[in-house]
UniProtKB/TrEMBL annotation, chains A, B:
Protein name per Swiss-Prot or TrEMBL: TetR family transcriptional regulator
Residue ranges of domain HTH tetR-type in the record: 21-81
GO molecular function, one term: transcription cis-regulatory region binding
Residue ranges for the DNA-binding region feature of this UniProt entry: 44-63
Top-level taxonomic group: Bacteria
Amino acid sequence: MPSHDLSPPVAPPVAPPVAPRSARAEVLAAAAELFSRDGYPATTTRAVAERAGIRQSTLYHHFASKDDILATLLEGIVAPSLAYAQRLLDTPDPVPGARLWALVRFDTELLVSGLSNLVALHQLPEVRGERFAAFRETRCRKAVVYRELIAPLEPLTEADLRLRAELVLGLVEGTAAVARECAEQDAAAVPEAVADAAVRLVAGNGCPADRLALIRSGARLL
Amino acid sequence: MPSHDLSPPVAPPVAPPVAPRSARAEVLAAAAELFSRDGYPATTTRAVAERAGIRQSTLYHHFASKDDILATLLEGIVAPSLAYAQRLLDTPDPVPGARLWALVRFDTELLVSGLSNLVALHQLPEVRGERFAAFRETRCRKAVVYRELIAPLEPLTEADLRLRAELVLGLVEGTAAVARECAEQDAAAVPEAVADAAVRLVAGNGCPADRLALIRSGARLL
DNA sequence: GTCTATAAGCAGATAGAC
DNA sequence: GTCTATCTGCTTATAGAC
């Protein structure tokens, strides 16, 4: 006898509209929000658990420690940035400065999109530990990419090149926190403004508006 | 009988070569160092007291709370910056951009001279409390000064002006932490490099090297 | 003003039942 | 995998002698 009437008359359950995040993902999301808002040391594992809808002790089935949560978060956030940066290195510059513009825009967008304070953590004392070596390593590689993108644009000594790359990084990271405050502003405009500023900052002989427009259009090809 | 042989044959004790800092000053110095190095929440009052050469409980004879120490520190650091900024506002620009250059240089020097992380604290969650309202207020006034120094340099909309001022602030604050890492670099050169970068960043039509040299020399008159 | 002693609470992490 | 219960240690801050 066919069992066709045992099959449900309605459509079988499909994925709910909101993705059914695993408990682990729920914890990461909660931690990202709280670490950003209140800072890492000030956020208790109890608060993270509560927001994730589980008990404090259950955290330790998914993560070895509080540090482990932070490290996972940081690595996951920095990874796309580095991937994009590496891709840019393999692409020729359509217009001189276009790749730099694109990378700064990408990074700033990453930072302002909800996790600004989190990425700003790279300069926090907590991240000095062994557990975060991989994260710091990634940040160093970012600095190298910036140097390689800037080098063809300006005749600079090695020291000046390093310095200017660090200035761009400082601008990106320093602006992230700032951007959150000015929520009044069109938040979408901030990453592009930072990218413009970075290009002007790097250009020793100035970067007039028309050349900047050229760079912007070149960056759209990347 | 004269007691002349009771008086010491050597010179009477004079003030020791290192200034005899009061206990309060000692605490502030210790806290500045530790808050900068390890972060505010991670620094215990015990550690501050130990470094200051007193017991933990004795702190509370000089300060009402741990927050009180931080607030005192922050206000003391930001005050000279604001004083200098206000003075600049009362002085005409010898060369367009000279005042901006001078202020950025001053602020960056303040930040890199040992207390970088401390000033970077302004964007930390801890400083959101009522106790730190005065500090936040000061920072806002700094932003206003930057706007007023930038406004005469470029024809900008109100929104763009605000944005560019925030970018300069972000650059200054973001670079501070960075500068510490590159101790290899001539640390003295960093503030001037940041000032150069700020001027280039602001200039919409570019700032060639010769004009920058002019600005630098103009800033020396301030 | 500095000390000893201690209060009162909360942190991160673990044990073990279900 | 999630829970309840709890351990252990450390935190800021206070009380009160000297």
